[in-house]
Specification:
Pfam families: HVSL (PF09749). GO terms for molecular function: 3'-5'-RNA exonuclease activity; lyase activity. One of its GO terms (biological process) is U6 snRNA 3'-end processing. The protein is an alpha+beta fold and about 180 residues long. The chain has a single domain, classed as Cyclic phosphodiesterase (Cyclic Phosphodiesterase, Chain: A). Helix content is about 35%, strand content about 25%. It is built from four helices and seven strands; from the N terminus they run H-E-H-E-E-H-E-H-E-E-E. The strands form two sheets. Strands 1-4-3-2-5 form a five-stranded antiparallel sheet. The protein has a two-stranded antiparallel sheet with strand order 6-7. A hairpin with a 5-residue loop joins strand 2 and strand 3. Helix 2 packs antiparallel against helix 3. It is globular. It starts with 6 loop residues before the first helix and ends with a strand. The model has no long low-confidence stretch (mean pLDDT about 95).
């Protein structure tokens, strides 16, 4: 799900956070700001069009909504080779986001692909660094949260989902 409405605010935050933490940590900005509803998976080329049609059918009745992003959180990937600083979806919108996740997970299951996490934490990854730097970032979290709160409310308009398969980008518009 693309982050459009508050992208400029988040990009400003990325620049400020990188400057603030640069003596201690080499952080890099995530360039494509989005909220994921699936893990990265591999499809065979011949499956792409049918997968697209399956997602289109599964999402045809899904409704978009307005939401906000609020709290920062530190994540690592499963291998602990990368650490991420992310901003979470306001918990008040978790049920609505889960309603979008369900059809995506059903399609993933139908294709025998990895479904999203059992207890999803809906978030937008902002910054990343190499290695497990969770403790260092946790230590700076309060300072970074204050930096984030200096910006206006981070609005996330949930209007479409996107699926990238190789060099193809599919857009699924949600009902309003």
């Amino acid at each position: 799900m693309p982050v459009l409405a508050c992208a400029e605010q988040l990009e400003d935050f990325q620049i400020e956070a990188i400057k603030r933490l640069s003596p201690d940590l080499e952080l890099r900005a995530n360039e494509s700001l989005h909220l994921s509803l699936s893990k990265t998976v591999v499809l065979q080329y011949h499956q792409i069009d049918e997968f697209h049609r399956s997602l289109q059918q599964a999402l045809h009745s899904c409704v978009g909504f307005n939401s906000t992003l609020n709290l920062l959180r530190v994540y690592t990937n499963e291998e602990r080779t990368r650490t991420f600083l992310a901003v979470q979806l306001d918990a008040a919108y978790g049920t609505k986001m889960s309603a979008l996740l369900r059809p995506v997970d059903l399609v993933m299951r139908d294709y025998r692909l990895a479904q999203f996490y059992d207890n999803p934490s809906f978030h937008v990854s902002l910054l990343w660094c190499v290695g497990d730097q969770q403790l260092l970032l946790q230590d700076k979290l309060q300072e970074l949260q204050q930096l984030l709160e200096d910006h206006e409310t981070l609005k996330l308009a949930v209007r479409e989902l996107r699926c990238k398969c190789g060099n193809k980008d599919f857009i699924f518009k949600l009902k309003l």
